[in-house]
Amino acid sequence: MPDRTPCIAANWKMHKTVAEAGEFVDALLPRIAATQHDVVICPPFTALSAVVERRYGTAVKVAAQNMHEEDSGAFTGEVSAPMLVELDVEAVVLGHSERRQYFGEADEALARKVPAALAAGLEPILCVGESEEARDAGQTEGVLERRLQADLAEVEDDRIAEVVIAYEPIWAIGTGRTATPEQAQEACAFIRDVLRERGAAADAVRILYGGSVKPANAAELLSQADIDGALVGGASLDPEEFAQIVESA
Ligand code: PGA
């Protein structure tokens, strides 16, 4: 089985000014100096450069929280993959449930964004997850499979292992309700099976869990066989808490 380097990502959402981002990185770096994991910080667009500049020579990678699928054009308010690459950003979160829910992000756009990110040299972190209603109706696997098939439709099979998948049950995001380690493992193993059926090198794909990850629950979630890391929202805003999560991986 290929080695999957654990990946712990901080999704700051619409939090932190440039000054606050700088303070966070300065506080975080000494706390994670010894880590062998991939540590990814996803700041708002405005703070990308500040984080990039401070992290050179460290284990920290920088990801944007969204991008447009075209390289350039008349798309007011949007940012493209080449623009992110120019800043030395290495990755991009795509299809977060907040973007799907509040900004109408559709599978059709994601089917173009994922290959556009890969083509530009960005590592896509594709988020998929079910609503509470879907889980209660026993539709979790159906939702995950549909999303993966739609969003990865245009990615060549031999490049799927370059995509990081984040399993993020919507009912667990920002609610303090974490999926149990068993629920999270079951969904992540299912995601790996779907990728395997597509002919991908599924054992090489990193699958993260996201949804109310905190220092108190991280170790147990991250010890599951098919969970290769975490996408952390609220608890990633504090350098001490986030460093504890990195350590528990
Ligand atoms: P949360 O957010 O950790 O605050 O639940 C996770 C996410 O939205 O990625």
Explain how this protein is built.
This protein is an alpha/beta fold and 249 residues long. It is 40% helix and 15% strand. It has helices spanning 18-31, 48-55, 81-86, 97-102, 107-120, 132-136, 140-151, 181-197, 215-222, 239-248, and strands at residues 7-11, 38-42, 60-64, 91-94, 123-128, 164-167, 207-210, 229-232. Strands 1-2-3-4-5-6-7-8 form an eight-stranded parallel beta barrel, surrounded by six helices. The protein is globular. Bound molecules: 2-phosphoglycolic acid (PGA).
Features of the shown structure:
alpha/beta; 40% helix; binds 2-phosphoglycolic acid; 10 helices; 8 strands; 249 residues; 8-stranded parallel barrel
